[in-house]
Amino acid sequence: MKQVVFVLMTCLLFFVSACSEHRVIRETNIEFENCSQGCEIKQEKCQGSCRNNCVQCSAHANQTSKLSYRQYQREQVIRGGTIARQLKSYRDPLQCRKTTCNCKADYQVCIQACGGKIHKELRAAPVC
């Protein structure tokens, strides 16, 4: 009988502990606000550098494709062949869509370090 009571009490304790909820309690909201403002400043700087990387990547890709296309044209003229390709043939359309930095993930980690909560969701890759 004692064993049955012990098992029932253990199960009850187990079920009650499974329903417990853990919350992060901040000492003051001012600390969180200051920390989150720092995170927002870091995110703005990150996005600015990523935009610059996108523009620079596109400019570099255009310049490289033009040089390759001109070389192709010269080779065809020397061979006496016809120019069948276009400038678009020398540009990789996905080259500048590859992510070089992930500002949103860095921001989320920063906010979590401040004690905030982040709800995750899936989205399409950014278009350059």
TrEMBL record:
Keywords tagged on the record: Signal
Q: Which domain of life is it from?
A: Bacteria
Q: Does the keyword Signal apply?
A: yes
Signal peptide range in chain numbering:
1-20
Q: What is this protein called?
A: Acyltransferase
* Organism name: Legionella quinlivanii
